Amino acid sequence: MTMVNETGAGKTGAAISEFLKRPLVIALVLIVVLLFAGNALSPGFASGQQILRLLIVAALLGIVAAGQNVVILGGREGIDLSVGGVVSLSAIVGGNVMNGADIGIVPAVLACLAVGGFFGLLNGLGVTLLRIPPLVMTLGMLGVLQGLLIVVRQGIPSGQAAPGLSSFVTQPFLFGLPGIIWLWVLIGVLMALMLTRTVFGHRIYAIGSNEHAAYMAGVPVKLMRVSVFVISGMFAAVAGLCLLGYSGSSFANVGEQYMLPSIIAVVFGGTSLAGGKGGYTGTMAGAVLLVILQSILTTVNIADSGRQMVFGATLLLLMLLYGRGRAMRA
Amino acid sequence: MAETGSAKAPTPGGFKRLIERYPFLPALGILIILLALNGIFSPNSLSYRSLTGLVSTYLALIMLAIAQTYVIFAGDIDLSAGAVVSLVNVVIIVLMEKMGGGGLAVFAALGVGVLAGLVCGLINGIVVAGLRLQAIVATFATSIFFTGFALWVMPVAGTPAPALFWRTYGSKLLGLPFVFYIVAALAILLFVISRTRLALQLLSVGDDAQAAYQTGLPVTPIRIKGYLLCGLFSALAAFCVTGDTASGDPLVGGKMTLFSVAAVVLGGSALAGGWGTVVGSLLGALTIGLINSLVFFIGTPSEWQNFVQGLAILVVLMAGILVGRRARA
Q1: Among A269, B41, B126, B323, which is disulfide-ready with B130 (CB 3.0 to 4.6 Å)?
Q2: Structure confidence by residue, pLDDT tens digits, A222-274
Q3: Third-level CATH fold of A54-321
Q4: DSSP for B61-113, written as a single string
Q5: B305 touching chain A per CB within 8 A
Q6: pLDDT of residue B277
Q7: Contact A264 B137 (CB under 8 A)
Q8: Do B310 and A145 make contact, defined as CB atoms within 8 angstroms?
Q9: Does B205 touch chain A (CB under 8 A)?
Q10: Transmembrane ranges (chain B) (predicted)?
């Protein structure tokens, strides 16, 4: 096989097929295909205005997925099921701190980051000090957060987004794009720099691919693992604030819709759930892909039942495209 | 982690050996403590009548926890279990209604319900074990599909179950509540399954799939069988839900999925597979039920109840894992 491919043409062919198998490329190709398909199904789907709206929704998902991405990269079955609860809680806390006034935005951001970081810290401590599997720890935390949401909602009103925050998320900010999209791009650049250029980023990959080797090499494994959960909590908090700006006021369990989709976006971005392999650029494309898919299904005029069945089946098909686990070999 | 290299204790103590043989002992201990606490705060809650009520309310979760256990044995997970419960619930309700609600209709509907559960399990098995997709994301995708199907069968909740069905579920037979007969039948069923090779095979696949494959075990078919068992018990869980709520709801099971996973972990089974017991999951599901009733009996204000429940479940989850690991390390 390799012998045959030694010719120049074979090499290029192999290089092209290798290129086409890269998760980011798959996601981008699918995004273009889906945009054309959407436009064919309902003309105007791929108009600039629509694409902008899609990108805002994708940014919300993408910001949650950034934290999820870091936790998953950190390995040891890393996963954060509590992000949905943090998103909801952050939206409520933010709404009450700013209470519809622009002057409250900065305190609200700080308060939300503190809340997200706190629950991330608890997750991280449970996972490292008590060595609870991340799925169990964050699942338990989700239950706590959902209970806390009920308590908070009983005691205080749902709060109001400040006009500044709302326009940041929904109105043009720079070059016709809303601030949230710039924020997302900034997060994308920072994530890429962190993961590829900093010691911290390399250490995330190190603990994700071989925790024991990383420990032997002097990586502070526990500190790193706590950090990834704190980062995840903070990203979820930022997303909660943006969601508040997007919808004007918070409502019960707004965040729940982000829990599992954030994991799917990471998977569609080519990050392995086993940890240690992948990056955030793909995840951003994965988030856009997921949002476009959902949006196409809402424009098509079918019953909710059919829509969900098509969505579930399409997700499975896409997962097949992204490559499957290795077959058993003796 | 750092501890991997440390030497194992030379001779395991009696307690250790006991837990190694019966991994559900910590769960049983927690359950007894919770029962005692329930009794202290509300002596009435330990009455025959209240306990029967507890079992009939949480029988569905028990069934679903058992369903989840078999896939977790093999190191897999089923996030669609709750959606399967919803699907089977609406399928049997619609069938019973269409067929007139008589005895024959009920039996036919239950037969179709079991079949539906098995088909869902087969789909999950093929997708996860056959096509080798990640269990967490793949079963989430199938859960969306199953929920869509349930919504197609019954778009809006509310169709009542025929009186014959729910009256039987809540009835008494020869002086004993009907649910006791279900529990007895369940015990026999679990005993029979534990006598087959399948449970052990699932555990060995979960312990080390590669090693299991090299010893000649058909790993993929075994994992698919695990999902089939999961589908079967999810259908049984749906029957209990239907008996308890007496109506159809295309979203009724959604919230149960994560509780079923929690119940399995509470029961002392390892989420990574290869270690666990079905009895533990049963106790884990009852633990969740007892926590909920205890939170009620100690007079928690209603808006605080979910929070205290969540916190208690988290604490018990941690405690169970810590005790279990101490025994195994």
Answers
A1: B126
A2: 899 999 999 999 999 999 998 888 887 767 677 788 888 899 899 888 888 88
A3: ABC transporter involved in vitamin B12 uptake, BtuC (1.10.3470)
A4: HHHHHHHHHHHHHTT---TTHHHHHHHHHHHHHHHHHHTTSSHHHHHHHHHHH
A5: yes
A6: 87
A7: yes
A8: yes
A9: no
A10: 22-41, 53-72, 79-96, 102-123, 135-154, 174-193, 226-246, 252-271, 278-298, 304-324
